[in-house]
Amino acid sequence: MTDSLSLASQKHELRKLALSRRKSLPEVERIEKSLELADHADALPLPPGAVVAGFWPIRDEIDPRPLMDGLRQSGFRLCLPVVADPHLIFRTLDRGTALEPAGFGTLAPGADAPEIQPDALLMPLAGFDRLGNRIGYGKGHYDTAIAALEKNGPLLCIGLAFAVQEVDRVPVEAHDKPLDGILTEKGYRAFGSYEP
């Protein structure tokens, strides 16, 4: 019990550190760095025609929307996560899809948009390390979704973050799945041995 409390405490402190670094970026710099993500789209190891789950940015997160639009224009199908029980579900995002509040300040396609199984997740996060370990926001939404989605086949998990969100070492728990890669404004770094 003490070990898990210690890990949770370490993650909490690292989360605070990484998020304070992110928050310290001036707004204009966050916008510019978000736009730079799209410059690195070709480096992503996405299978042709893949269904890619993005996310609607909240607070001072890196904004994936320019990247997602570039992926759409390159022939990838898009979807967004919706908080549901027992785990996130993903609904198709097409041009003109009506979006509605989906909790935590995000927007997502409504119930009339079809559910879809993503091949790749572009994931928000609080922090990451050089081995691809990530710190989420502590709710476990992506952990449970990844576990459910992987039962249906390979899943490419790519974190999206500002480079300043990198920390020295993320403590790992049994349920933690490392990222296959991270995309920051500086480019794409592969970690895993993802095989489609």
From TrEMBL:
It catalyses: (6S)-5-formyl-5,6,7,8-tetrahydrofolate + ATP = (6R)-5,10-methenyltetrahydrofolate + ADP + phosphate. InterPro entries: FTHF_cligase, FTHF_cligase-like_sf, NagB/RpiA_transferase-like. Its EC number is 6.3.3.2. The keyword Disulfide bond does not apply. Keywords: ATP-binding, Magnesium, Metal-binding, Nucleotide-binding. Its cofactor is Mg(2+). It comes from the Bacteria. Pfam families: 5-FTHF_cyc-lig. It is an enzyme of class 6 (ligase). Belongs to the 5-formyltetrahydrofolate cyclo-ligase family. NCBIfam families: MTHFS_bact (TIGR02727). This is 5-formyltetrahydrofolate cyclo-ligase.
